[in-house]
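Chapter summary example: a protein plus iron/sulfur cluster.
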Amino acid sequence: MPNMLAVCINGKECEVEFGTTILEAARKMNIHIPTLCYHDDLCLSGICRICLVEVDGEKTLQAACSAPITRPLHIRTHTEKVRKARRNILELMLSNHYGECYTCFRNQNCELQKLAKEYGVDSLRFGHVELPRHTKDTSSRSIIRDMDKCILCRRCVRTCHDFQGVGALEAAFRGIDTEIQTFLDHPLGDAVCINCGQCINRCPTGALRERDRSDEVWNAIDDPQKIVVMQTAPAPRASIGEEFGLPPGTSITRKLNTALKMVGFDYVFDTNFAADLTIMEEGTELLTRLKDFIVDKKPVSLPMITSCSPGWVKYCEHYYPDYLPHLSTCKSPQQMFGSLIKTYFAQKIKVDPKNIMVVSLMPCVAKKYESDRPEMSASGFKDVDYALTSRELAQMIKETGIRVTDLEDSDFDSPLGLGSGAGLIFGATGGVMEAAIRTVYEIITGEEVPFENLNVIPVRGMDGIKEAEISFQKTKEDWKFLEGKTLRVAIAHGTANAKKIMDKVASGEAQWHFIEIMACPGGCLGGGGQPIPTNENIRKARAKAIYDEDSHLNIRKSHSNPQIQMLYNEFLDHPNSKKAHKLLHTTYTRRGKI
Amino acid sequence: MKLESQTQNIARAVKRVCDEYHSRREKLLQILEELNELYGYLSEYVMKEVAKNLDMQVSEIYGVATFYSFLNTKPKGKNIIRLCQTVSCELAGKQRIANALENELGIRFGETTPDGMFSLEYTNCIGMCNQGPAMLINDDVYYNLDPEKAVDIVEKYH
Ligand code: SF4
Ligand code: SF4
Ligand code: SF4
Ligand code: FES
Ligand code: FES
């Protein structure tokens, strides 16, 4: 039995374990204490002091987020002293804050603004900043930094170092000179940043945001010469409802289709189609590597590692450049999709690809960088013209006055609008692995995976690192070399976990054959372009929505998608064909660590 | 060729200092102090090498190097004047000393004289609070300053 202590907060009594923080105790009792530097996902830092409370027997106010309870306590959370202190802190923060709420992308979703309202800040007692003191850093393809709005909570720093294991951002100098900077204040575009956007998602203010492409997309929509094609990824469909007031975990895929047509997109397709295609290409690539290794004894790069997460790809380019040959050469579904639109689809509708604009709805900020990579234009045209985040698209829809939640459902367009459940679960950590296993197992044995309802449970869930084994019996003629063999797989999400996996691969400690890595915690559903806030519970709710949707679909295996079969028959011949290689595969670049 | 051997020398020196402390992360401050002493400042290259040796992010090294006023990330003059800016000295008349030093040297705080003789900086409390205003020139402490006295002292370093 752990050591239990009696705590009394505002007259309410409760027992908590030794070491519980005051904030945790209060939350347990449903008592609200404001926070700013605290974030559910991050380690404690206790620097903003907004969470101050009065503790009997203590001379000074205590920071609830970081004060552990080590003796029975009487705590009061809204005495005069506390209220005054909180208001003082806010007024001081505002005295150092240059920003105009009505031109700020966090307007009405800003924690600083919300607190100022909650604590009745009605004057700028200590003055305020009248002119910008920093120039915006617009050097990154994905992220814009506006340090005039920074309140130095260091949530981005902790996100980047601890959560993502990257460390692009750091608090430099001290006291009133403190600033969040990159190494030597280099432009973010030149720093070791993987564009994951997790820092944006943790920032309480408008200091960090994505590079907004919605104006360009509007221009394309308004241009009568242009056919504008939209592809939507699974993760944003399970989250964008949050931007319209729906509870986390409400998927609005088909209403969104209707809305997108009303906004003015000419075609609305499903990125899951391209996810199915990725499985065909990547599954074949894996089997080829295994055959080369086992039968032909050729030197091949195993384990093979997934390449659909552009944040992970860039992390690998910076930190594990020697392991780039291990990455699958497959482009991500977003890019495969774009490439097919500018070729296969353009031919089908007999339109010059230069008049086609591909826009994608993504949960991701790194997708912007990815779509701008020079190698992503094998067709002679940029695969994807603009990648929008869930937040940007929600903003565009709000501008039209369309009430998504009231709309009728409608289907995706054909022929790139059909995706299987396997493609759908790409949005959750473990999803690519599960989809690959569903297909690869069936190719090898001719039978469905031996899991109830096709649900490969061992690869699901929010553990940072997951491992599983699948052995092959009764293999088909072509795959006899795998008879009785066991495929060992691993899954990591969040690049801090990717590092752990890669270090095991490098030391030879682990013998995996296939690894799925997603840069963002929870996989794409926790992506840096998703609605703010995102935290553990919200990630779980979005994951549930995605798996539920999968379990209700008729087609749940990539290779059973008839439109995929049609694409190979009409256009690509077979997986990993020469044409497929040209359009759907890519190369990587070695980059420095610092 | 020459440049290459120079960077190699620096890399070797950084490694030697890091090795002395078994490349332990918690010894970062001592390591940076030694290297700051050796080169007068912590260059971009030195910080990167330290990061490599300690398996840390270079931004962390930078964060620490900029936090302490006795560590420099830019080259400094031969003599570094550090005037205390903390409350007691502030109340004892720091500002007048600051003005006198700026006038005498013709530079502002944070700058170095064109001849490379003096850098002018602020520091936080140096433990002379009861005898402020106080300043350091290199490792020498001066206190109970007034503007004339401060200027006279600086002259001795020319
Ligand atoms: S960061 Fe918040 S408080 Fe500052 S301008 Fe933006 S909305 Fe307003
Ligand atoms: S985008 Fe990711 S890698 Fe870049 S600064 Fe933000 S958290 Fe760090
Ligand atoms: S950029 Fe945002 S998250 Fe980072 S310290 Fe400033 S306010 Fe906090
Ligand atoms: S939330 Fe507790 S100190 Fe910032
Ligand atoms: S305040 Fe200046 S020495 Fe302490």
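Key point: Chain A has 19 helices and 17 strands.
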